[in-house]
Structures are given as structure tokens and as C-alpha cells.
């Protein structure tokens, strides 16, 4: 069932006030804010671009500038330096940034389940994770990749050391299509869709179905000083993703009209994969919605991340304290 924007916005506003100490722009005078994406614009950002195109941010009192990153490390650096107010971040990247001592806070979730997976190129040869034993598996080199691969393998009783692990950067699609590797860690909503469009007979092992908890993948992060601006930003995002829920094609149009060079067919397929998997929803029956961060889901993620060495045991309190409103405040 599609969520109603106004009540959800009110809940998020109350949580943001409690966590951030209130504040915001004067009525009728939008304040400026820069938001950095987690990756190059794609279907997962459709609700954000809908909010921008439809004027929802300005309606709520904030003039948002969307900035594309040059690398995955951009978000934390820009927030830390004060050159950005908000960012969309992979929860693993956020946790690592907190562990490093950056004073950042996660204030909401956009993608409500992991997008990470292990993708095998031949679904006939690899039917279960156990069939990956002895195979060559590519990883990007990002720390969370090893945690994802180890989790999937162990879910079927496979010793992670039994696979030949090679670092391939972000070449999973080309390397799998060419048969250079047997499998790779990749996002099922992006590389997984691209491989299917190329006709590669893949098999996906989505990490939250093979050993990992269902945790929020993509979170909205603020620098501590920008936290008061979170209220209008979140309200605008709620309205944007509600638009996505009511009319996915219109939201996709908003993305494509603002970002050049995107292939409509590919983005449509990615958006369909996300909505079919309820990736934007906190429940299997819900439509796209921005959600306050659930203490249980962030705790589940932190337990998994600690178990697999992404987060040091000694840093768990520091990381947990970065999630608003579960364990922290902006004051």
C-alpha cells in the first residue's frame, strides 16, 4: 500500500527535530543546500530528481543543488570539508567514515534493503553458492565486497578461501560477459540488469537472502552543522519518492530530463528491478517511501559489519551513535 506523504513527512520532521535540534529556512526564503550522490545518477535516484524537477524542495524551503561524485569517497570528504551539506551514502561507507572519526549523521533511508549480490555468469553451472567453490570470483576492491562474498559462501557452508578471489575494479559486466571470471560481487539492480540485457544467463545470490540481514543500503547523511536543514530536505524527498510510487514513468522522465547520457531502456529495467523487489519499501507490500532509520535494522547491519571486519568492535558505539534518531542527536 502506498504511504501517504503528509503523515510520513510529519513523522520524519518530528524525528529530525528531536535529533537535529530544529532550525531551517525562514518562510518564503529558501536556503541553499548541496547534496552529493553516492554514485553516478541512475534509476535509484529517480525520486530525488522528481523532487527537484517538481519544485518540492523549494516548496519546503530549501534550494537543493545535486552534485555527482567523482569517486565513492567523495561524499565523506565533501561533507567533512563543509563543501556539501548532505549526501546519499552506502551504509557501509557511512559506517567506515564514522569509524574514522568523521562527525556525520545518518538521518533517513532511501533504499531499504541490500543491493549487493554475488552474480554468477552461468546459471546452469552455478545453482547454489556451494557451486562457487574452486571458481574465480571478481571483487572491486571495496571493503564491503569481501564481506558480501564471504557471507554468501558461508551461507552454503563454503570456506571463503576455496574460491580464487581477484580484484577487477568496476568491470564486473565486461569481465563476466567475456568469461574472464565465473562470478563477481555486484549490485543486482545495476550490473545484474545490464548482464541480463546482454543475454548473459546469470544467477544472482542477493546477500540478504544468503546470510545477511535486511538492512538499509542507501542512507541520507548530513554533516553535523547542516542537520537543521534536514527537515525541509526530508520533506521534499518524501514527496519525490511518493511521486515515484504513484507514477514511476514520470519520476523517470524527471531523472532523464536532468541527466544527459542515460539510456531510457536500461533505466526503466533498473527501476523495475528495484520496485519489483520492494527495495524502496520497509515492507513487501509497501510502495516507495523515505523511512526514518529503524534501530533494529541498523543494529542488524552493525552486527553483520562487525562480524565480517568492516567495522572494528571497538568502534561500534561510535558508529551506532551516528544514526538519528536511534542513538544520537545533533546537539
Structural class: alpha/beta
> What's the total count of β strands?
10
Element-level helix/strand string? HEHHEHEHEEEHEHEHEEHHHHH
**Rg on CA atoms, Å:** 19 Å
Task: Tell me the helix content.
Answer: 25-40%
Question: Could you explain how this protein is built, in words?
Answer:
By secondary structure, the protein is of the alpha/beta class. The protein folds into two domains: 5-114 and 215-320, Periplasmic binding protein-like II (D-Maltodextrin-Binding Protein, domain 2), CATH 3.40.190.10; 116-209, Periplasmic binding protein-like II (D-Maltodextrin-Binding Protein, domain 2, 3-Layer(aba) Sandwich). 40% of the residues lie in helices and 16% in strands. The protein has 13 helices and ten strands. It has helices at 5-20, 46-53, 56-60, 74-81, 91-99, 143-155, 172-177, 191-197, 230-246, 248-258, 264-276, 295-307, 316-320, and strands at residues 31-36, 62-67, 86-90, 104-111, 116-120, 136-139, 164-167, 183-187, 203-206, 218-223. Strands 2-1-3-10-4 form a five-stranded mixed beta sheet, with helices on both faces. Helix 1 (5-20) packs antiparallel against helix 9 (230-246) and helix 2 crosses helix 10. It is globular. The two termini are 36 Å apart. The model is unreliable at 1-26 and 326-331 (pLDDT under 50).
In short:
The chain is α/β, with parallel strands linked by helices and 331 residues long. The protein contains 13 helices and 10 strands.
Topology:
Layout: H1 5-20, E1 31-36, H2 46-53, H3 56-60, E2 62-67, H4 74-81, E3 86-90, H5 91-99, E4 104-111, E5 116-120, E6 136-139, H6 143-155, E7 164-167, H7 172-177, E8 183-187, H8 191-197, E9 203-206, E10 218-223, H9 230-246, H10 248-258, H11 264-276, H12 295-307, H13 316-320
Parallel strand pairs: 1-2, 1-3, 6-7, 6-8
Antiparallel strand pairs: 3-10, 4-10, 5-8, 5-9
Amino acid at each position: 500500500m502506498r504511504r501517504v506523504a503528509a503523515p510520513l513527512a510529519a513523522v520524519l520532521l518530528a524525528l529530525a527535530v528531536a535529533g537535529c535540534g530544529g532550525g531551517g529556512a525562514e518562510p518564503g526564503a529558501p536556503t541553499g543546500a548541496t547534496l552529493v550522490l553516492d554514485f553516478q545518477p541512475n534509476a535509484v535516484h529517480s525520486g530525488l530528481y522528481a523532487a527537484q524537477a517538481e519544485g518540492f524542495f523549494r516548496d519546503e524551503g530549501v534550494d537543493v543543488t545535486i552534485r555527482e561524485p567523482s569517486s565513492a569517497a567523495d561524499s565523506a570528504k565533501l561533507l567533512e570539508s563543509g563543501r556539501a551539506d548532505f549526501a546519499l551514502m552506502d551504509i557501509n561507507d557511512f559506517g567506515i567514515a564514522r569509524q574514522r572519526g568523521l562527525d556525520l549523521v545518518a538521518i533517513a533511508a532511501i533504499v531499504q534493503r541490500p543491493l549487493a549480490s554475488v552474480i554468477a555468469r552461468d546459471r546452469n553451472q552455478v545453482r547454489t553458492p556451494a557451486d562457487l567453490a574452486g571458481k574465480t570470483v571478481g571483487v572491486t576492491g571495496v571493503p564491503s565486497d569481501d564481506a558480501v562474498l564471504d557471507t554468501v559462501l558461508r551461507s552454503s557452508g563454503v570456506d571463503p578461501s576455496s574460491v580464487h578471489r581477484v580484484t577487477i575494479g568496476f568491470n564486473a559486466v565486461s569481465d563476466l560477459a567475456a568469461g574472464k571470471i565465473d562470478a563477481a560481487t555486484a549490485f543486482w539492480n545495476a550490473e545484474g540488469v545490464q548482464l541480463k540485457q546482454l543475454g548473459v544467463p546469470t544467477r544472482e545470490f542477493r546477500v540478504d537472502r544468503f546470510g545477511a540481514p535486511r538492512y538499509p543500503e542507501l542512507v541520507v547523511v548530513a554533516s553535523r552543522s547542516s542537520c537543521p536543514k534536514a527537515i525541509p530536505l526530508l520533506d521534499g524527498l518524501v514527496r519525490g519518492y511518493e511521486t515515484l510510487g504513484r507514477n514511476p514513468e514520470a519520476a523517470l522522465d524527471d531523472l532523464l530530463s536532468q541527466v544527459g547520457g542515460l539510456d531510457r531502456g536500461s533505466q526503466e529495467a533498473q527501476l523495475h528491478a528495484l520496485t519489483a523487489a520492494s527495495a524502496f519499501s520497509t515492507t513487501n507490500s509497501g510502495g516507495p517511501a523515505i523511512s526514518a532509520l529503524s534501530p533494529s535494522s541498523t543494529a542488524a547491519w552493525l552486527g553483520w559489519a562487525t562480524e565480517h571486519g568492516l567495522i572494528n568492535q571497538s568502534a561500534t558505539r561510535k558508529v551506532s551513535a551516528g544514526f538519528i534518531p536511534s542513538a544520537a542527536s545533533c546537539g
